[in-house]
Amino acid sequence: MLRLLRTNRPLQRIVALGGVVLAALCGGTAAILDRLHDETVAEAALGLRTLNASLAEQAARTLEGIILTVDGVAEQIPPENRRSPEAFNRLRADRQVYEILKAKASGLPQMEALSLIAADGSLINFTRQFPAPALDLSQRDYFRALKDEDPGRVYVSRPAKSLATGEWTLYIARRVNGPDGGLSGLVVGAIRLSYFEELYRSLHVTPGSGFSLWWRDGMLLARFPAVPDKIGTIAASPEVAERIAHRESGTLVSSRSLDGKDRILSFQVLRNYPLVVGVSRTRAEVLARWQSQAMVIAAAGLVSAMALALMLWAMARQFLAYEAANRALGERRQAVQARDEAEEHVRQLQKMEALGQLTGGVAHDFNNLLQAVRSALHLLEAGGEVRRTETRQALQVASQAVDRGATLTQHLLAFARRQRLAPAPVDLGAQVAGMATLLERTLGGAIRIRIDRDAAVPPALVDPHQFDIALLNLAINARDAMPDGGTLTIAVTGLSVEGKAADGKAADGKTADEGISPALAPGGYVAVTVRDSGAGMPPDVLARACEPFFTTKPVGQGSGLGLSMVHGLTAQSGGGMRLESHPGLGTAVTLYLPHSPADPKDHPAPGTPAAAVSAAFASANAEPPPLPSGGTRILLVEDDVLVRMANAAVLAEAGMTVTEAATGEEALALLEADDGIGILVTDFAMPGMTGADLARLARHHRRDLPVLIVTGYAEKAELQDLATEPGIRILSKPIPPPALIGHIMAAL
């Protein structure tokens, strides 16, 4: 046989295959046994935890029954016996009190005795004997704890041996106060710790089980199976004592139990009490079924090695196929989740963009209305027929309302990303530090301001004035979220986004678990985080926090434009805003502003075209001194009838000759037909031909024609080229009539 095995190659292959299969069988059997072992231990641990939770609840109810009885007795002591320690001592000879105490104690099987103790520590009434024996209890820990102060609740003592029975007993004491708050006496309920041993003995449990009750420091109070010589001692092993002292519950394997056997122990701390209930089983009993299963599996493996090997091989293939299917399903689920998140992000961006377009359109129309109202008010104020003081005051109020409306439209345009900005390199750390005094005065003394700034952060490209307004808005929001005071933290750090656009991160580099984060383009950013310790926002409020006019403040205390304006500023500046908030944990708003270009040529210098654009936009509403206007002819182009009529009346009242046009095409025809027109004043946003197109065509026809373009937006892309040309000015609606007249005269 051996010679054949040495020479027969197919046989060698068969033997080799058999050896491989046998090795696989042994390995598979060992793995199955190991898994069954772990499952058996886990199942036993789960059963122990379940039983332990039930016993812990029962033990807590046992103590609470005694506590309720002790509280009831303390409350039922007559007022005349509460007046002084001497009056309380008179209960010593009151047999009726003894009967009452005895009746209450008999209603609770767990209560060993119910006692009244005088202010000097002597026993004055006792359910086990009347009259009460002369016992001095002044050295008991519950008497020392309650003698000098009243905690307002019962006191659970450390276990001690009863002076009456000699058994280990747990005492629950309640202080009885006199009218002046002084000690009149104590009501004490006692429970024999052997009660728990008897309770555990009555349970129908599996063999090898053990039940124990511990003090939190490892002192054994009761156990079944009983170990009388260990009661009242620190009997827990150091490992068990460490666990029960620092954890509320847990499961562990103890190799040094009280009976010397390896046990799986589950412990649970009683709620509100320094007691621990432990339930255990010996490992031998837990693993008995596993051992029998192991013998059956091993025997079956030895008898049918080949069949079992093939079966295991098929099972392995099936398992691998199952794992591959699960992995593919998980990858598909992740892909679907990523797609849903991307679609939700796109929907949010589309929603904010739609809101921005709607808001910008509303602001534009509102500016037109404000322009008409402002011009009409100017005509009334300039007329001689307004003489009454009340009428002039009414006109002043109306003018103030127009100014407030103009401020509101600026906030709306900030959200719509159409406000005029004058970006410049700004050291945001220094900018924030410079505002500290203003913030302190604004927020009040109840709020502590903390500023963390990284000195290595490069300058950011942002409008410094608008940044100050945004920071002040965020600080005021934080103040309103902390009505009882708190801490406002402003951190200035750097952030670098590499590769494709990524979600913004907090100053610590961690992404938000719950919040609104921007998608930042690759590049360097300065992150300014304003964090408060206020109430925070729930998810539904957080989702709408950046919407214009959305506010949770009472009517008259907030416009709902603060966060939307900040969001618009960061977006228009080329960055973004991240909003994170959790109820009870406060709110953090992070502004991401792009780094200023390192090349000086990227900064507009005075006298350059880029600087001229910034100057044109920044100073558009300046009011130069008016010049003589005699004989001035103006072509006024405005598609809004109310604005055109009002502005034409204002200019005519100033002595100018006004020719009106409703469209750019009509204005071009008038310019070609009349060379006497001295200046073109046109709106920007008009149907068909915009004011910018009209200006280009008009200047092509008459190169030296002065042009004023009046706009409610900040269309820098369309107007920045025109703003650099001499003789062209960009004005912002609503413009005061005197300023409009002054700009016309200055342009001429």
Automatic annotation (TrEMBL):
<dbReference type="GO" id="GO:0000155">
    <property type="term" value="F:phosphorelay sensor kinase activity"/>
</dbReference>
<dbReference type="GO" id="GO:0005886">
    <property type="term" value="C:plasma membrane"/>
</dbReference>
<dbReference type="Pfam" id="PF00512">
    <property type="entry name" value="HisKA"/>
</dbReference>
<feature type="domain" description="Response regulatory">
    <location>
        <begin position="633"/>
        <end position="748"/>
    </location>
</feature>
<dbReference type="Pfam" id="PF02518">
    <property type="entry name" value="HATPase_c"/>
</dbReference>
<dbReference type="InterPro" id="IPR033479">
    <property type="entry name" value="dCache_1"/>
</dbReference>
<dbReference type="InterPro" id="IPR003661">
    <property type="entry name" value="HisK_dim/P_dom"/>
</dbReference>
<dbReference type="InterPro" id="IPR005467">
    <property type="entry name" value="His_kinase_dom"/>
</dbReference>
<dbReference type="InterPro" id="IPR036890">
    <property type="entry name" value="HATPase_C_sf"/>
</dbReference>
<dbReference type="InterPro" id="IPR036097">
    <property type="entry name" value="HisK_dim/P_sf"/>
</dbReference>
<dbReference type="InterPro" id="IPR004358">
    <property type="entry name" value="Sig_transdc_His_kin-like_C"/>
</dbReference>
<keyword id="KW-0808">Transferase</keyword>
<feature type="domain" description="Histidine kinase">
    <location>
        <begin position="361"/>
        <end position="597"/>
    </location>
</feature>
<dbReference type="Pfam" id="PF00072">
    <property type="entry name" value="Response_reg"/>
</dbReference>
<dbReference type="InterPro" id="IPR003594">
    <property type="entry name" value="HATPase_dom"/>
</dbReference>
<dbReference type="InterPro" id="IPR011006">
    <property type="entry name" value="CheY-like_superfamily"/>
</dbReference>
<keyword id="KW-1003">Cell membrane</keyword>
<keyword id="KW-0812">Transmembrane</keyword>
<dbReference type="Pfam" id="PF02743">
    <property type="entry name" value="dCache_1"/>
</dbReference>
<keyword id="KW-1133">Transmembrane helix</keyword>
<keyword id="KW-0614">Plasmid</keyword>
<keyword id="KW-0418">Kinase</keyword>
<feature type="transmembrane region" description="Helical">
    <location>
        <begin position="294"/>
        <end position="314"/>
    </location>
</feature>
<dbReference type="InterPro" id="IPR001789">
    <property type="entry name" value="Sig_transdc_resp-reg_receiver"/>
</dbReference>
<protein>
    <recommendedName>
        <fullName>histidine kinase</fullName>
        <ecNumber>2.7.13.3</ecNumber>
    </recommendedName>
</protein>
<keyword id="KW-0472">Membrane</keyword>
<keyword id="KW-0597">Phosphoprotein</keyword>
<feature type="modified residue" description="4-aspartylphosphate">
    <location>
        <position position="683"/>
    </location>
</feature>
